[in-house]
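ok so for the tutorial part 2 we go from a plain amino acid sequence to predicted structure tokens. step 1 is just haveing the sequence, like this:
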Amino acid sequence: MINQQLFENHELAPVHSDPLPLSVSHPLWLFAVLMVIAALVVIVRIFYRKNISEIVRAFLSMSVSGQLMREESILLKRASLLLTIIFNLTAAFMVWQFGAGLADKLPLVLSDFGRFLLFALIIALIYSAKYLILKLTGFIFEINREADAYIFNIFLSNNLFGMVLFPLIVFLFLYPQLSDSGILFIAIIAIAMLFFFYRILRGILIGRASSVWSPVYLFLYICALEFAPLAVLVKVLAPR
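step 2 — the prediction. this is what the tokens look like for a chain of 240 residues:
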């Protein structure tokens, strides 16, 4: 009699009369991708710990960055390659997580995994095109040293940004409901902007050290190949 009274007139009334099946929050491929990224992070941490320290020092110091460019260490190149893969995968994960509305704009891509691969490919193509444009610019205007220095600067920024993104994607994997949070989206954009503006600042310093320094050409490059793609990406991914 007492138990019956406890459950009568309860404010938390049941919504469904029958039990509901447990819904899976994540597809299996997403867990596999996360494990691949985690494995790459572990490999870098174990086998290239010294190179990671050098990359961090180079990111903070122009002189160390120039020294690493002159040394052209094979181990550093291997570490940079792994870090570049980590950056591409983590960035694609972020775009996939926050860009759920892009599914309607990609009718030819039928699966979530297909969209993820497409995002990773687009990110890789964007930076490949940027590197090619910089190399051609360096060749045409005979500023190969400055172009190579700025390309290395982009590598440093992306490599470290990928490592910063890794714990964030783990957090999003564990709490997918946070992808709808505008606060988390703004926080990630703020971190990306810090890396972005620091990269631009280093690029300006590299340009000022050149004998053919031209603030007009530098301004045009920054607007066309740095600010414009970033503005389009934020506009597409911004939660409605």
